[in-house]
Design brief:
single chain, alpha/beta, Spore Coat Polysaccharide Biosynthesis Protein SpsA, Chain A, nine-stranded mixed beta sheet, two-stranded antiparallel ribbon, 10 helices, 25% strand, globular
Length: 287
Amino acid sequence: MAKVKKAVIPVAGMGTRFLPVTKAVAKELLPIVTTPTLQIVIEEAAASGIEEIILVTSPNKTQIADYFRTDTVYDKELKELGKEELVGSLRSLTKMVSMKIVLQDKPCGLGHAVLCAKKSVGLEPFVVILPDILIESAVPCCKQLMDAFEKTGIAVNATERTPRNKLHLYGIYDIERSDERYHYASGVVEKPNAKDAPSDFSVVGRYLFPYDVFEILEDTPPGKNGEIQLADAMNTLAKQGRQIAYEYEGRQFDTGDPEGFLKANIHYGMKLYRAELEPFLRELLKG
């Protein structure tokens, strides 16, 4: 079985929920404490053994490519000041994985964004990571999916149980049968009402696909707003008996909206600065 070496990360979105800051700063570069969410998920990929990162971005979002460069004026100034170590974690990361930029000319859905990476991925299985979703776990979530793929040989996507009152916010798996953490899906329902939801297993932003998902995406007609949806391709795989919802071990933080972003910052901030933050937060909550 082919080794999983590549990860596709869609980063072409406009980040409208974070305006006005995203008018000038790519949403994926907004930091959790001092580290951008994009860097955090790439670190997860690298720790999982991924060797190449394919960033699918917009022609208008040049900041993302610039962030990973080592030859900027700012880098030169840091070197002259003897402060290169302040970006040491970023430099170490760029030595662990290679980066490739692929352009998505216009937003046409998550499925279209993944399809843009077809030529760069080639005839290999690959991971898709949504940079909004941070997952804290002892074993990196991507590695958990890679291990599950090695065992099963079919598409493996992350899932977790979700409260009934939040099922309408996510894609939900229709589960045919389960084997411990392996839930064999017969379909995916996009944002159903709680009463119509086929299960409480939601789609989480980590996916591992065989390369022929590109053929499925090419044959997938555009849906709402003319977009090609990744969920439709997942549905096809599920109907073919080739889709597992893997119940990963870990804790998810959805930074895709301001509330989730703040929660993630508080969580990771407490891990770094608990002694300083805990009394401050207690005092703040009193008010």
